[in-house]
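Quality-control log, excerpt.
Job 1 of 2 completed; input and output follow.
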Amino acid sequence: MPAWSAALRRNFLAGLLALLPLFITWKVLSLVFGTIDGVLGPRADALLSLAVGRPLHIPGMGLVATVALILFMGMLAHLVVFKRVLVWMEEGIERLPVVRSLYAASRQIVAPFAGEARLPFSKVVIVEYPMVGRWTLGLVAKERATSDPDDDRVVVFFPSNHLHLGYPVVLSRTAVQEIDMEVEDAVKFFVSCGVVGDDKLLMRGGVPLWLGREDASQ
């Protein structure tokens, strides 16, 4: 292969690799902007046209209206009266066979990002699972698997980076080791596929777990 042909291929590949991330970012932002702007955009244009007395279209008004609506709902969410209205709405949704399942699943998705009082998990643990030598981070969903006082098992949820996707496992309490990590930090760890984490990921009582089970339990 001639030298000029090899150099051309290298330059083409280098240029492609440089442009590809920019192209992907542009396509994702275009999709997000178009989707959000398309929801309230026509309604915002209709209101503006009615106000000025002639057809008027301003790109991005749908996005602005969506952000304003979210901020407005956020302010209402702190009002006691609005909270009572939400409770009434949820009670009504619970009476609808199909809708209640979808709503419950949606609540589980957003629950880890809500306030601390809304978090459905109590602590972060690490378990030698699914086999010896492989450690898996999990969240305690129930401190006791059953109401039997002699049953000392716990329910641990092992989420994926999508949070709502995962599986609960009933484990012996002796197999579960609590670590020095907040639930919010664990959520960041899962969402980032393990990229976001700190030295507390494998710490218990300030002692690294890799020093051994005896040292870690002290």
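Job 2 of 2 completed; input and output follow.
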Amino acid sequence: MTDIPGGRTSRDPYEPELASFRETDDQTAPDADSVAKTGTTTVGITTEDGVVVGTDRRASLGGRFVSNKNVVKVEQIHPTAVLTLVGSVGGAQSFVRSLRAEASLTEKRRDEPLSIDALATLAGNFARGGPFFAINPILGGVDDEGSHVYSIDPAGGVMADDYTVTGSGMQLAHGTLEGEYDPAISIGEAETLAARAVHAATERDTGSGNGLVLATVTEDGVDIEEYDDAEELL
């Protein structure tokens, strides 16, 4: 900046322009209480024959009001893979649509199916670089290498495990899985265990409830079933 007569200043055209940062006005900032959130408990379990993913069906506003009792929080994003919806409903739905479209486009370009590991890496890249609000999904799938479960954190971290849990009821569900998971578990036993873990969370977590959705993924494809009460499978 240079001084000119009259007390004004003239900007050097070659000087870098620095933006000023101001706190967002309360009237324009998103109201967290008005954002529909899945709250949720989502569980992913690997078996030798496939993957089982279980979730509750409740969406809430600000964690205090149940806005929907029939949310299907598992969606197929690949012929042999599913992703859960965790966090804000809008952000999670947008993430699922974007990942499904990019995975399909990538497969068409390469003329070969994506491995689940590659799909998880793609999901992590999307989470880290995209405008998706407060998501923490589980990716479960089957490929030539076997059965896989990954948790995707909001910063784009990708972690594989034999089983994993995300959502507001994760501590309660984890306790159930820790005591009962066995690497030799069958698909049927994994479905019962996922139902038990989700049910345990809904007993104490106000963000989780209103039944159960179970997705079973094998090399033959994806099957998603809804239940009004998790106890139906216990």
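Post-run check on job 2. DSSP finds four helices and 15 strands in the chain.
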